[in-house]
Design goal:
By secondary structure, this protein is mostly helical. The chain has two domains: 162 residues, Serine Threonine Protein Phosphatase 5, Tetratricopeptide repeat, CATH 1.25.40; 165 residues, Serine Threonine Protein Phosphatase 5, Tetratricopeptide repeat. The strands form five sheets. A two-stranded parallel ribbon has the order 1-4. A hairpin with a 2-residue loop joins β6 and β7.
Length: 459
């Protein structure tokens, strides 16, 4: 990623202080030799990190490629090429679309904003910074690490410690300077960078209380996200540590018995279960709560017990089509942030894997009693560790459906020999995605390949 329009446009926004304007020229606009003018006032830097239009969204391509839903043939045929091709894991996803691949562009905008902020703190020592300055700097490190992780989950192969040094990572640079090219190192280097940014954020942030502003982060947020990140790496001891640290600070769950099925928005952005707010990218997509074509996977839907309130509150039967009608974001786009329920499931899984069955059962039952009709839930008492782990993984699918996590779970679980094969059937055609398939890394946008000369992901 060298000097290109998306960076030039963002630089102009920073210089002018227009935080909510948008770039309207082509993705491949003419390169310039502009220099960065870095804001220095704390309120300007905070404004960059509070820019909801940039920091709020996460990639959608992984969810589009996962197995939580299906489309009928006639609906699939009418979709735009990117969405249609991602659905069947086609070799050519973009079909010549040269720009506006938001799954790639948005995380790099986030990295750019983070680098702008960090450049402002490049001189001086951290110890001399005020609490607000430390908070801003910590938020920037977190944003950069999260963006890089989201890119890796979509555009790189799944992380395995044994092979990560031999796999291609994600292009990255730590400076906002437009003339400095990004380096694409190994996947191991990408994950080292993500962890370094997260730990920098954790060291800078002092507060660990529950935040009302879910776009901002503190120690609680970083611990929570490190639990997700470590789980994706299959570092179960690390994921347990971070989930435990977060839940020791805050572990509130919403009791679904207190929610009416007719309530319009029971899960607003500031609900007490949400730790970090984000949503999947906006734009033209059939992956949304208002989609007229999305069908929830029928087997997954059938796995919810009749007394499971999630079945009543989350889903709606529209002329035989099971659709999701709510999001924790309180918006049309599906929620992709962090919740205490996810943390409980991370800790339960890790405890089960580490032979801590009693604790795993406590976590699972603590969650499910809040999800079932009062008086109908019988606590789970599995003694077989393998059966317990299978139950936890099933409840993870059910609780975190269409949260942007299933693609990551399939990738990591197949590294453990789970043998999950994804299938699509469209009329007379059948498509499959088997474990170890290189198509678990989505292709880098064509314009990026053309400009940078980097090697395209194998498909």
């Amino acid at each position: 990623m060298e000097n290109r329009f998306r960076y030039s446009c963002l630089i102009a926004l920073v210089v002018l202080g227009v935080m909510h304007a948008s770039c309207t020229k082509t993705f491949l606009d003419k390169k310039t030799n502009s220099s960065i003018v870095v804001p220095t006032r704390l309120e300007e830097l905070r404004g960059l990190l509070d820019n909801e239009g940039v920091v709020f969204e996460t990639p959608l391509l992984g969810t589009q490629s996962s197995d939580e839903y299906y489309f009928k043939y006639e609906d699939w045929l009418a979709m735009n090429p990117k969405e249609r091709n991602a659905y069947i894991w086609a070799k050519d996803v973009y079909e010549g679309q040269a720009f506006a691949i938001k799954d790639w562009d948005v995380p790099y905008q986030q990295i750019f904003y983070a680098n702008i902020v960090l450049e402002a703190f490049r001189v001086g020592t951290v110890d001399s910074l005020s609490d607000e300055a430390r908070s801003i700097m910590g938020n920037a490190y977190f944003l950069r690490g999260r963006a890089l992780f989201n890119l890796a989950e979509v555009f790189a192969m799944p992380y395995d410690k044994a092979t990560a040094t031999n796999l291609q990572g994600i292009p990255f640079k730590s400076s906002p300077e437009v003339g400095i090219p990004a380096k694409r190192g190994s996947l191991a280097e990408t994950y080292v960078q993500i962890m370094a940014d997260m730990k920098s954020a954790m060291n800078l942030l002092r507060d660990k209380s529950f935040l009302e502003n879910k776009l901002r982060v503190n120690k609680l947020t970083v611990w929570s996200y490190l639990a997700r990140f470590s789980l994706s790496m299959r570092d179960y001891q690390g994921a347990l540590h971070y989930a435990d640290s977060a839940l020791a600070t805050y572990d509130h769950l919403i009791d679904y018995n207190g929610i009416s099925p007719t309530q319009i928005n029971p899960f607003p952005a500031n609900n007490p279960e949400t730790i970090l707010q984000s949503r999947m990218i906006s734009g033209i997509s059939h992956i949304s709560t208002t989609s007229g074509t999305l069908h929830v996977d029928s087997n997954l839907y059938a796995s919810y017990d009749i007394n499971d309130l999630r079945k009543i509150l989350w889903f709606q039967n529209v002329s035989g089509r099971i659709r999701m009608n709510r999001s924790y974001a309180g918006l049309v786009q599906f929620f992709s942030g962090m919740t205490t329920s996810e943390l409980l499931l991370v800790r339960a899984e890790c405890r089960a894997r580490l032979n801590q069955s009693t604790g795993a059962l406590e976590d699972l039952n603590k969650l499910l009693v809040k999800r079932y009709k009062s008086g109908t839930f019988n606590p789970i008492t599995f003694s077989d560790p393998a059966v317990l782990l299978d139950k936890i993984l099933l409840e993870r699918r059910k609780e975190l459906i269409l949260r942007g996590l299933r693609w990551s779970d399939i990738r990591r679980l197949n590294l453990e020999g789970r043998g999950i094969v994804l299938t699509r059937k469209l009329k007379d055609d059948r498509y499959e995605l088997k474990p170890d398939d290189p198509r678990y890394a989505l292709p880098i946008p064509d314009a990026e390949i053309e400009l940078s000369g980097m090697e395209q992901n194998k498909r």
